[in-house]
Design goal:
The chain folds into two domains: 151 residues, Rossmann fold, CATH 3.40.50.1000; 57 residues, DNA polymerase, domain 1. 37% of the residues lie in helices and 19% in strands. It has eight helices and ten strands. A five-stranded parallel beta sheet has the order 5-2-6-7-8, covered by helices on one side. The protein has a three-stranded antiparallel beta sheet with strand order 1-10-9, with no helix packed on it. A two-stranded antiparallel ribbon has the order 3-4. Strand 9 and strand 10 form a beta hairpin.
Length: 217
């Protein structure tokens, strides 16, 4: 059992709160095939970073913004199999709304749609790809997340399923908890703790802050 005391919690979206893997795999595989790219490689690269950065990395010859707009619309249209991950709804229901938010590499439009389809609350102060100039693994997204909640970085705990997100949180000076849903545990090695899902998390609200207990496994 690992225990942390924090004031705020920042959640990545895909792979932490929502299982969008079927949608992401279909969309990116289709797009990769259309452009003569290796679908498996493109899908792997796409997890955990902004769409525009993935396009720039795998297909630098293409108009990155044009392709990003096209891919985003494909993702918004494809919700087949989208669902909340185990423990997500239960954990969010225990948290004061002003003590958590979502920090995602997707756009605000896409994040809102996925949360709604999964039956999860949409935070008023999400940080999305629309709000930053540098995506994960840069610390900018998580620093922005702490700022909108009015807490210092060292008072925050982050839940992440991707190495780039873990690095973003750690570089921002936060505790990072890896959720082993998308990547292998060894790929999340920079995290302070690793759990199989949010079902392993229990939070107790106290006057001093939130006491978080993790059943690692």
């Amino acid at each position: 059992m690992t225990v942390f005391l924090c004031q705020a919690i920042l959640f990545d979206l895909d792979g932490v709160l929502v299982d969008s893997t079927p949608c992401v795999t279909r969309v990116w595989s289709t797009w990769a095939e259309q452009h003569g790219l290796d679908p498996e490689y493109v899908v792997h690269v796409a997890h955990g970073q902004r769409t525009i950065e993935t396009v720039r990395r795998v297909a630098p010859r293409l108009d990155a913004q044009q392709e990003t707009d096209h891919i985003e619309q494909m993702e918004i249209n494809d919700t087949n199999g989208l669902r909340a991950l185990p423990g997500a709804a239960e954990l969010l229901a225990t948290l004061p709304p002003q003590r958590y938010t979502v920090v995602t590499s997707g756009t605000r439009r896409l994040a809102g749609k996925r949360l709604q389809i999964a039956g999860l609350p949409v935070p008023d102060a999400m940080i999305t790809a629309d709000d930053v100039t540098r995506g994960k693994p840069d610390p900018e997204p998580y620093l922005a997340g702490a700022r909108v909640l009015s807490f210092e970085p060292e008072q925050c705990v982050v839940f992440e399923d991707a190495p780039s997100g873990v690095r973003s949180a750690k570089t921002a000076g936060m505790v990072a908890v890896g959720v082993a849903t998308t990547y292998r545990r060894e790929e999340l090695g920079e995290a302070d703790a690793i759990i199989p899902s949010l079902q392993a998390v229990a939070v107790k609200i106290t006057p001093e802050g939130m006491i978080m207990s993790l059943a690692e496994g």
